[in-house]
Amino acid sequence: MAGVARTRVWLLLVLVGSQAWGQEVLTNETIVALADSGRSEPEIRETIQSSATHFDTSSEALTALDTAGVPPGVIVQMVRYGSRAREAREPLGEFVPPVQTRRGAFENRVRRVNATGYCGGATLFAIVDERGRTSAVRDLSGELPEEAREILVDAVRRMRFRPATLSGRPSAATMYISLNFADPEQRR
Description:
alpha+beta, three-stranded mixed beta sheet, three-stranded antiparallel beta sheet, 11 strands
């Protein structure tokens, strides 16, 4: 009888162990597949929070995710969780966001948008690479006239930053840029 009890305990441990090892680890490819399958952004973000992850968060990979149509909020979540085992909930280290180093060129282009007479808001999503260069820009507002969109996207692409750092090392980062343009009559 003692031999039978030991066998059952051993089988139980093997089954528990195989479930832990069989857990799917989310990668960039699985996130693209989830986005393509029609899952909502909050659903994908929740999946990232509750799963083991192994994401490539290099600027090239983040740009590829943006090009593949992965929602910006999901990309931000991927950067936040990076590569971690499900049980490892410790932060990855101190994160210092990118800091813009040249402002004049961006402000000049914002003035050009003002000159178009556009009135309303604009939200842009950008990926800043490890060198402090903008590697991808997307207009999230969808309300900008084509001329204003081209000016602003070009302005953000030309922006330069002191790169973000994660645990003291240069890192790619994502950012949102929100702008509001007042009615031309109100500006006077």
